Amino acid sequence: MLSDRPLDLDYRRLLAASRKLTTDSGKPVLKLALLSDAATQQIVPVLAANLDRSGFSASIYEGPFDAIELEAYDPSSGLYSFNPASVVILNATQALHASFARRKISAVDFIEETFARMTGVWNAIQSNCQATIIQSTFALPLERYFGNYDLKAPESFYAVTLGLNARIVEAARQRKGVLLNDVDGVASLVGRKHFFDDRFWDMWKTFCSLDWLPHLAQNLTDILVAMQGRGVKCVVVDLDNTLWGGVIGDDGLEGIVLTAHGEGEAFYRLQLFLRELLRRGVILAVCSKNDEVNALLPFESHPDMVLRREDISVFIANWDDKASNIRQIQQVLNIAFDSMVFLDDNPFERNLVRELLPDVIVPELPQDPSDYVRFLTQLNLFETTTFSNEDLQRAEMYRVEAQRREAAASYASADEFLQSLEMQIVVSRFDPFQLTRIAQLIQRSNQFNLVTRRHSEAECERMMNDPSMIPLYVKLSDRLGDHGLISVVILEIQEESLYIGDWLMSCRVLSRGVEQYVMNTVFMYAAEVGATQVFGRYARTQKNGMVKDFYRQFGFTLISESEDSTSWSLSVQAYQPARVHMKAFEEKQTEIAAS
Amino acid sequence: MTTTNDLHERLTDVFREIFQDNSLVLRDDMTADEVENWDSLSHINLIVALENEFSIRFTTGEVTGLKNVGELTALVLSKVG
Question: What domains, with CATH codes, occur in chain B?
Answer without folding.
Answer: 4-80 (1.10.1200.10)
